[in-house]
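Notebook B, p. 112. Complex prediction, attempt 2.
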Amino acid sequence: MAVTFLQPGSPTRRFLGDFRESWIATGALAVVVLIVLLAVFAPWITPQDPYDIANLSLADARRPPGFVGSEGYVHVLGTDAQGRDLLSAILFGLRISLEMGLAAGLFSFVLGASLGILAAYLGGRFETAIMRFVDLQLSFPAILLALVLVALLGQGKGQLIVALVAAQYAYFARTAFGAAATERRKDYVEAAAATPLSGRRIILRHLLPNALPPLIVVATVQVANAIALEATLSFLGLGLPETEPSLGMLIANGFQYMMNGRYWISVYPGIALIVLIVAINLVGDQIRDQLNPRLRR
Amino acid sequence: MLGFVLQRILQAALVMLAMSALVFVGVYAIGNPIDVLISPDATQDIRDATIARYGLDRPLWEQYGGFLGRLLQGDLGRSLVFGVPVLHLILSRLPATLELAVAAVLAATLIGVPLGMYAGYRPDSPLSKTIMTVSILGFSVPTFWVGLILILFFAVELGWLPAGSRGETVEVFGVGWSFLTANGLKHLILPALNLSLFKLAMMIRLARAGTREIMLSDTVKFARAAGLSDGTILRRHVLKLISIPIVTVFGLEFGSTLAFAVVTETIFSWPGLGKLVIDSIQSLDRPVMVAYLVLIAFLFVLINLSVDLVYALLDPRLRRGQVA
Amino acid sequence: MSAAAVLQVAGLSTSFFTKAGVARAVQDVSFTLGRGEVLGLVGESGSGKSVTGFSLLGLVDPPGRIVAGSVRLEGQELVGLPSHALRKVRGRRIAMIFQDPMMTLHPVLSIATQMGLAIAAHERVGRAATRARCIEVLNRVGIPGAAERLDAFPHQISGGMRQRVDIAIALLHRPAVIIADEPTTALDVSVQAQILAEMRSLVAESGTSLVWISHDLAVVAALSDRIAVMYGGRIVEEGPTDVVLTGPRHPYTQGLLDSLPSRAKPGTELVQIPGGTPSLLALPEGCPFRPRCPRETEICRTMPEPTGDALRRARCHHPLVLSPAEAA
């Protein structure tokens, strides 16, 4: 049954070609790009600055979508319990979510990848100590760890990022270690290590490039997870302070009004959150399938 | 074999010791515990008395020693909010969480395995693609949001199921259980479904990946060549093989199901451990937080230990060899 | 001959529709198998011989499918048969044995369970009768202590024993045809010889016809009545074993014979066919063997039609030995 295939084009080109072939992933990528643009330009496209208390009027609070408020413009998605324009609040909330997700993802990536690759390179006691700790932490639910850290450190963006990174770096470390350790044991790396070549060269030229593809997959998923985790913490009242409502807090604030039919305060921020998270995950899923040689046919 | 078991138990005890130290330092050393023990406008005398009573003037390692000693005697301290022994508090809330977690795990298995097997058997059919899309949702959509939507649909819009609390319970062995009454069962459905969603998605993935791999194997080709129907192959050959990783993962994931109950219990006002710990975090009830974390850590160490031991029973190579 | 034909294959073509293109694994394969006859199907890996075997049982997995042709088993057309009807044929009237016995048996089901399932797939038999039948068939394939072996798990028995279990499963319903896809390749040489001998006597006593797929011309020569040589998805030469071995007409068959180590004079270098197996996605225009063939000319850019008759034919513009019709 051995069938020999021709493999035209460069790997990158083929990767992009395969990616474009999945219209779900292409659509998801477009959605992610759109949301990022909306979030970045939120201050210029929203009708209201939702963080400026002076703008808010309680007379406008909890109005349904389409309501024309005291400022004279239409609240397309209605208003929340403080009289915020929900559309503005959502776009600013997305900004915070993305900020937190990307920052946490980046720091976890750097910390986790460094630890994992270093463990693979150095081996021995260092490897045992680090990977033991990482595995122990991986068996412990990230959400509990983040929950406790936030409770102890207090509220604020910096504290939140620390909690998210502490909860997530272990995934990067495990992935980087797995890929780098396999490569480290290959003959050509062993041979390179035996020469007076610098360790930095081995790490940068051999270990890192091989660990990169799986790390990228983990990174997409973990950015989505960080966003979800941040929303969950905020929903539980342990995230960012009230003055800068993230999506999770908007949803939490609307929860009590949902029971008597004012669904929009929770539902629209929720939809924004879900669309963002799912879109990132779909992109990540496609990348993972394409990088997994076993599923290639 | 005995040596291996002893070694593993010793390791588990060491991990437990390290975890308890981490938890203790984390909770007591960050921030000043005295601030949460008494009100800010208490007199200096009351302040000193409280500090002396809790031993907060001693060095940290001494405090930890005392904490550890009391822990080994089953004394986890008193809740600052409820004023009752923490152990008592936790034990009274544990059954509700266990009930919820078991129901969720059962639901995830009974629904997830057949769906995943189908998706692995017919990977290109529209139904399979739908199943996989839903499982991506289950993985990525935060639990609290799904809980909200479940409430919005089934409780608010349709009015079929209650949105919170345990409902009627029946006392068995001095503990109240919801699943024994029709009303309690109704209360259990939404939270259990909510909590199971993540595991359900994982179950679907595991079952699909396993089924797909096995269906392409020579074993299945040979069975087909012998005239076995695909139904028989799925029921006998595939199910038997995928059940091994599924059972393993479930053992490992049961602990995290308990942890995730934190979110579900908050949304559905389910009076279990998770709700207790969120309340204690919000009211900075440190003894309860510490006890909960130590308990969860203990549970994880215990589960990891049993998985190791079961593997050693199944795989003779692990027994004599290096502890990797 | 054709009156006793058990299996008639005509114009069978199977293609794999992959992202990289259409792989024509089997093209226009035709042969006839008499009752009790052993046909050796020879070719290198990638020649399409295994896919031919799977196609006969209708066991081609997507993205592959049979695109043309006919497979008649005892007069019944199998191509295009609905899957439930095909299932009833498989294992009962046509069975298959695979290359690697380490991969075919289910690792955590006992041999008794696996054989029982194979029986239950076609017949309703009681528990005791099932057991008796399994023991009887295991005895026939030369497994000592069959009653105890029956309750073993595959990992508890050797590779040779496993392959015997596979053969026993194939024999359970006394099928008219057994397709054997290199069943001895993965085994030790001594076990290979035993199993070859056993297969020969089993086939002879039960009247079962056998299609023996192999890359090893020596194995096929020892076992088969007739030989069909495959190259690039097509049968390029077919005929009685001794005729093909002594007077090959296709240059590829000649090349295969020349490269047999047993034919080389001691101390001389082994002969190789230059070049490699063509990709099934990009077969050369005309005769697939053309790029490697010493006798290639301009006419080889067109596909040669088989010359000769059903008993002895070849697909070559420049055959080494002319057929009687060509010679005339």
